[in-house]
Each structure stands twice: as structure tokens, then as C-alpha cells.
């Protein structure tokens, strides 16, 4: 089943479950029109990508820079207003059934200067919520079946500031971020450089994660601390 068929089928099931089956014709027409336009944008983008298994669904006002560094699996969705910078050492790689929320920004490298960043790898069936920011200059790896809520921010670099002089001139230090399989990162979470969120973990909304977690842990607070296990 391709991405369009999957979205239409899932939407019909939701309408039926809500007891609004009679309105399905109207809902289906609106959804088909929206998704059809997204597929047309995907067809235009597809030849420019390094590789793509299928036709991606691309929202309005989405900005894809340096697409020759980007690899997409099948049934990928990039929603309205997202911005993806492909230019990076290892590229930007998405697995199958990955969704990128509206107005999310993915930046491994500056548009204007500095070294090429490492890049981003996202596994199968994972999603990045709207208004997210993935700063992957130091490398970010997101596993399979990972959910990132709205406004999650990840920064795989830190500014150096040890010397007394101008901070900007001291440069940055890179350190990778890893989120292993089956994790839920709730809305507004910030994850700093060098952190690993281990398999099965949950991070509560608004937390700031500065240290790596145990498997199956529940984290909350600023800075985030373990408050339980799943």
C-alpha cells in the first residue's frame, strides 16, 4: 500500500470510528486533493534526491536544500513549511514511513560557511512533530518507532567558552545525539550534545536532557532526572 492509499484508509477508519461515515465522501475528496498535490511536489523533488524508494509527500512552502545529499525510504511525509538542509558529511537519511512535522528545521551545516556537519539518520516508522529543530552538525541518530512531540529541540554541538575572549571566535565542539528504538520524546523537550536516549525511554514534556538515560526509563525536569521505569 502506498502512502496515499495508507493515509486515505487510515482517515476513513477514524471517520468511521467517530460515527461520521456519512461525511466520508466530502472528507475523502478534501484529503485526496491535499495528498495529490503533495505527491506532485514529491514527483518533482524525487529525481533531485540521492535516492528515494517511492513518491514522497511534500507539503506547501517546504524548503529542501542540497537534495542530492538526502536519501528517503518509502511512504515519507514532509509537512507544510518544513526546511531540510541536506549538505553534510554523511547526508540526511530517512527510513520507511517517516513523517516530518510542519515548520520543522533540520540543519547539519550552516548555509554560508564553517565545516560540513555530520548529518541525520532516522529509522523506520518514526515521526518528528511540528516546530521541531534538529541541529545535527555533530550527528543525530533516531531509531525505529520513535515519536518526537511538537517543538522538540536537539543540539549536537556546543559553543566553546573556556577562554575569556569573544565566545563566537572560540568555535564549537561536536558530540553526537542518539535516540534508540521505541522512545517517546514529549513536546518541548531539549536534548543536548553527547546524549543517548536508550531504548524504550520516555521523556516528559519540557524536560532538558543533559545526560544519557537507562533503558526503559522515564525522565522529567530541568535538568532531566529519572523518575521511574516503564
TrEMBL record:
SUPFAM superfamilies linked to this entry? Trimeric LpxA-like enzymes
**Enzyme's top EC category:** transferase
- What Enzyme Commission number(s) apply to this enzyme? 2.3.1.-
Q: Does the keyword Transferase apply?
A: yes
UniProt keyword annotations, A-Z: Acyltransferase, Transferase
Q: Which Pfam families match?
A: Hexapep
Give one GO molecular function term.
acyltransferase activity
Q: Which sequence ranges are marked TM in the entry?
A: none
Q: Does the keyword Acyltransferase apply?
A: yes
Q: What protein name is recorded for this chain?
A: Acyltransferase
Species source reads Arthrobacter sp. K5
Amino acid at each position: 500500500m502506498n502512502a496515499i492509499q495508507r493515509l486515505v484508509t487510515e482517515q476513513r477508519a477514524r471517520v468511521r470510528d467517530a460515527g461520521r461515515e456519512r461525511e466520508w465522501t466530502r472528507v475523502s475528496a478534501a484529503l485526496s486533493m491535499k495528498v495529490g498535490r503533495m505527491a506532485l511536489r514529491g514527483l518533482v523533488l524525487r529525481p533531485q534526491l540521492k535516492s528515494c524508494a517511492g513518491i514522497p509527500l511534500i507539503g506547501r512552502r517546504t524548503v529542501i536544500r542540497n537534495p542530492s545529499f538526502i536519501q528517503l525510504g518509502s511512504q515519507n511525509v514532509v509537512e507544510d513549511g518544513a526546511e531540510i538542509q541536506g549538505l553534510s558529511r554523511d547526508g540526511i537519511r530517512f527510513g520507511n514511513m517517516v513523517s516530518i512535522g510542519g515548520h520543522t528545521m533540520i540543519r547539519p551545516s550552516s548555509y554560508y560557511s564553517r565545516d560540513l556537519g555530520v548529518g541525520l539518520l532516522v529509522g523506520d516508522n518514526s515521526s518528528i512533530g511540528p516546530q521541531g529543530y534538529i541541529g545535527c552538525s555533530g550527528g543525530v541518530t533516531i531509531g525505529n518507532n520513535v515519536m518526537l512531540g511538537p517543538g522538540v529541540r536537539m543540539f549536537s554541538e556546543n559553543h566553546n567558552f573556556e577562554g575569556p575572549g569573544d565566545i563566537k571566535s572560540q568555535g564549537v565542539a561536536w558530540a553526537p545525539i542518539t535516540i534508540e528504538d521505541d522512545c517517546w520524546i514529549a513536546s518541548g523537550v531539549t536534548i543536548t550534545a553527547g546524549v543517548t536516549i536508550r531504548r524504550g525511554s520516555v521523556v516528559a514534556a519540557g524536560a532538558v536532557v543533559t545526560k544519557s538515560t537507562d533503558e526503559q526509563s522515564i525522565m522529567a525536569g530541568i535538568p532531566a532526572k529519572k523518575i521511574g521505569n516503564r
